[in-house]
Amino acid sequence: MTILVTGATGHVGRAVVDALVAAGQDVRASSRDAAKLDVPDGVAKVSADLEDASTLDAALDGVSAAFLYTRPQGIEGFVKAAEAAGVRHVVLLSSAATLEPDSAQSRIAGLHRAVEQALAAASFASTALNPGAFATNTLGWRADIAEGVVRTAYPDSRIGAIHERDIADVAARILIDGSHDGESLALTGPEPISFREQAEVLADVLGRPLRVEELTKEQAIERMLALGWPSDVPASVLGAWARTLREPSLVTDLVREVTGNAPRTFRQWAEDHRADFS
């Protein structure tokens, strides 16, 4: 069977490709421009734009299962093309925001829920992966770390940062065996870890001191907007961080339950990405 991985230039998408190749699967990787794909030998490459239905028929031809990034624009076209191609199972990279009690007021949750609902109404099986904080978010500190500092609001906020390879391993397992139909899986790392503790781990792994500089909420929003975040997103993210000062974010053992392996620690992530900070 052929498994399509959309968004294969992303951290998670590329890790899904690697996990499937390691499992001996026939993999087809896609992005808007296939020429930009850097994938292992033997992996087919195809250009596909989830917002342009005319590109999807060729990408989905002969595909039995697909890994999908959340992109509300064009989801109807994807569902139609996947049904026509006979796809049996779609695994969606969604967000933990859809599982939060206040998700009705969250723009992030709304965008992801729209795709979850479209897939749930389709004729094929689907599974939503709902990770919380990505360990890769700390790559956004690279410029600051080059100055010997980590700048963040709520440095003692404790989150269950997850390694992208754990998300990918869960996705690969489900794509292969077709399990967890109709489920939403809240994926996390093995323990809540604060931004301050992440900085300490990075300092140890990189072999250089890092001081933590606490930003105000207003300063953090300004930085997020400068990085291109939608204007109505930073406040909700910062609100979630503030809540974990009082109560650490949820940690689950679903990575182990699905894959049989314990989720990777933040230190493992830092060691895997050491070169990204050099």
Task: Give short descriptive properties of this protein.
278 residues, Rossmann fold, seven-stranded parallel beta sheet, 11 helices, globular
CATH architecture of the domain at 2-132 and 163-188 and 250-263, please?
Answer: 3-Layer(aba) Sandwich
Roughly how many Å is the radius of gyration? 19 Å
- Strand tally is 11
Order of neighbouring strands in the sheet with most strands? 3-2-1-4-5-6-9
| CATH homology-level superfamily of the domain at 2-132 and 163-188 and 250-263 | NAD(P)-binding Rossmann-like Domain
- Our measurement of the CA-to-CA distance between the termini, rounded to an integer number of angstroms, reads 40 Å
Secondary-structure-based class equals alpha/beta
What's the SSE pattern?
A: EHEEHEHEHEHEEHEEHEHHHH
Offer a concise description of the structure.
With 278 residues, this protein is of the alpha/beta class. The chain is 39% helix and 16% strand. Strands 3-2-1-4-5-6-9 form a 7-stranded parallel β-sheet, with helices on both faces. Strands 7-11 form a two-stranded parallel ribbon.
What is the topology?
Blueprint: E1 2-5, H1 11-22, E2 26-31, E3 44-47, H2 56-60, E4 63-69, H3 75-85, E5 89-93, H4 107-120, E6 125-129, H5 142-145, E7 149-152, E8 158-159, H6 164-177, E9 184-185, E10 193-194, H7 195-206, E11 211-214, H8 217-226, H9 234-246, H10 254-259, H11 266-272
Helix pairs in contact: 1-6, 7-11
